[in-house]
Amino acid sequence: MPSSPPPDPTARPSADTRRLDWQDLLADACAGRGLSTVYQPIVDLSRGTTVGYEALARFDSVHAGADWVERSPQRWFDAARARRRHAELEAAALRSALAARPTLPANCFLTVNISPDLIGHERVRAVWAEQGDLAGLVIEFTEQVRIESFAAVGQHLDELRRAGALIAMDDAGSGYAGLQHLLALRPSIIKLDRGLVCDVDRDEAKLALVEMVGRFAGRIDAWLLAEGIERDGELDVLAGLGVPLAQGYLLGRPGPPWVRVDSEAALRAAARQRGADRGTVRHLIETSAVATSTGEAEALLRRDEASAVVLVDAHGRPVTVYHPGTARQHDAEHGLRVNVDTPIDAALLRATTRPPTTRYEPLICTDNAGRLLGVLRIERLIHALASGAENAVR
Predict the structure, then answer these.
(1) Which is nearest to 338 in space by CA: 358, 359, 368?
(2) Which of 12, 46, 66, 348 is deepest in the core (most CB within 10 A)?
(3) What pLDDT was estimated at residue 179?
(4) Which band of pLDDT confidence, cut at 50, 70 and 90, is reported for residue 111?
(5) Omega of the bond prior to 22 within 30 degrees of 0, cis?
(6) Nearest 5°: phi and psi at 61?
């Protein structure tokens, strides 16, 4: 029987041999080879300015044969999870994303993505430990992985918050556990899924759902961020609804640190949002005493120069409210803070959900980057709401 001819090294491989060697590819990616990060700007629609960036993982093209290319980040992460290397790969992606953090523009935050089931993994925790202070960092959870134990996740979230990070819920409205996740995690930012944003100007049902999520975000003291905006009509409607934060190709494509936003689209949205102002707390803000250290805050109180002092971090974001007597300190995240574009009635409703000891304390007012603008006295809010109701009757 004649022997088979030797294989032709120039021959094109058959379909069944053109397969990716994921073990080797993932080993390289986990070591940081072929893995990079791009950054997409996040815009404050009330001012038309960039207030943050989302870090997005990118992988080099991989060829299996002559005509097969794999670049989808989701495909890589799915492959890593199937081979139990997802913690390694996500840790590598986080390190890549955070490498540019020291050059992040002033008064901007940086958002990074993480699967909720990995939040307590030792490899991921090592990344947070390397960063130390997490102020200005937003950690996004996606709905695509089920959270098995909210109690376990909550413990790690508390650690991250104490280190200065904020928590965001990504893809709200796309997954099976959205409401359960939102209630349990109490994020500072809720990101609307692209599926809700797409054609929101042409779909009344989507419009109603965005309004509902916006009201919910306001009640739990979270910012709403619409992602995936690609058309003028979508941006105009979302700005008119008062959605505070947005990102998408229309405003700025992902790129190297730190890409500029499309100023024409951003400024048009800002003008549209200002014209849609319907009784927000913006005109009721009063100045407040501010300190950058505990000692400075206590000194102001001892000199009777303020009835309360707001302690802010290096980025101007409120951390703690000090009242006369050091025993009265309140975490600025726990029901005391509202966004500048919060409706007056929503701000009052939030105030009434606080514990009796803080129910009538002034609310802290922040801009869409979380920076302190001033305080809102409850009596002023009540007066403004009552005056508006009286004028409506007349």
Answers:
(1) 368
(2) 46
(3) 66
(4) very high
(5) no
(6) -60, 140
Tokens of 301: 């109180």
| pLDDT tens, position by position, 281-328 | 877 787 788 888 888 888 887 776 566 788 888 888 888 888 765 444
Q: Give the separation between CA 93 and CA 205, rounded to whole angstroms.
A: 36
Structure token digits, residue 297: 């805050």
Kindly report the backbone phi and psi dihedral angles of residue 139, in degrees, each rounded to the nearest multiple of 5, phi listed first: -105, 115
pLDDT in tens, 75-100: 899 989 999 999 999 999 999 999 99
One-letter amino acid of 161: R
Three-state secondary structure along the chain? Answer: CCCCCCCCCCCCCCCCCCCCCHHHHHHHHHCCCCEEEEEEEEEECCCCEEEEEEEEEEECCEECCCCCEECCHHHHHHHHHHCCCHHHHHHHHHHHHHCCHHHCCCCCEEEEEECHHHCCCHHHHHHHHHHCCCCCEEEEECCCCCCCCHHHHHHHHHHHHHCCCEEEEEEECCCCCHHHHHHHHCCCEEEECHHHHCCCCCCHHHHHHHHHHHHHHHHCCCEEEECCCCCHHHHHHHHHHCCCEECCCCCCCCECCCCCCCHHHHHHHHHHHHHCCCCEHHHHCECCEEECCHHHHHHHHHCCCCCCEEEECCCCCEEEEECCCCCCEEECCCCCEEECCCEHHHHHHHHHCCCCCCCCCCEEEECCCCCEEEEECHHHHHHHHHHHHHHHHC
Is pLDDT of 10 > 90? Answer: no
How many whole angstroms separate alpha carbon 221 and alpha carbon 215?
10
pTM: 0.70
Asked whether 26 and 83 are in contact (CB, 8 A), the reply is: yes
pLDDT tier, 214 (very low <50, low <70, confident <90, very high otherwise): confident
Residue 157 tokens read as 């979230």
Q: Pick from 43, 27, 23, 47: which is nearest to 35 by CA?
A: 27
Angle between helices 22-30 and 86-98 (to 10 degrees): 40
Retrieve residue 50's tokens.
């960039």
d(CA 310, CA 201): 40
Q: What percent of the chain has pLDDT over 90?
A: 28
